[in-house]
Amino acid sequence: MKIKVYGKAHLEGTSKKTGKSYNFNQVHYLGPARGVEGMAALTISLDPAVHPIDSIRVNEDYIVEFDNRGYVVTFEPVEKKMNGSGKF
User: Structural domain boundaries of the chain?
Assistant: First the structure.
């Protein structure tokens, strides 16, 4: 599905509860959700080794696909197309 990235964050540290380390990028977007009239504020988590925080552009469109368990399998920028006047 196509989404627009409205925000991003890099989260890294050690869980106080489990003691395990974590390191991921979080992307914020609007999308449909059960029980929500209109759009819901949603987040996805991305591996920073695959999707570095600096490569994620806020206010840009992306294609995101999830597997049957809800994990992200595709996160790619939508290619901008030029119009007839040579502008995007």
Answer: 2-77
